[in-house]
């Protein structure tokens, strides 16, 4: 039996520009991290803090 890991972000996470436009959508922060070639810990830190990544993007959970 495979255990289903509870996703912290059921609707996924997104990369947004500084005007809050969604640019990319991912199922989870691991996929986002792979896309940008950074660690998922880094993604988590920015997701939780709302800080701007690389002066260009914000990472935010997708809101339904």
Unreliable parts: none
Largest sheet entry: 3 strands, antiparallel
Measured distance between first and last alpha carbons: 30 Å
Helical segment tally?
Answer: 2
Question: What would you note in describing this structure?
Answer:
The chain is an alpha+beta fold and 64 residues long. The chain contains two helices and three strands; from the N terminus they run ββααβ. A three-stranded antiparallel β-sheet has the order 2-1-3. Helix 1 crosses helix 2. The radius of gyration is 12 Å and the shape is globular. The model has no long low-confidence stretch (mean pLDDT 91).
What attributes characterize this protein structure?
64 residues; alpha+beta; three-stranded antiparallel sheet
Quick synopsis:
By secondary structure, the chain is an alpha+beta fold. It has 2 helices and 3 strands, in the order E-E-H-H-E. Helix 1 crosses helix 2 (40-49).
Element layout with pairings:
Layout lengths: L12 E4 L5 E5 L2 H8 L3 H10 L8 E4 L3
Antiparallel strand pairs: 1-2, 1-3
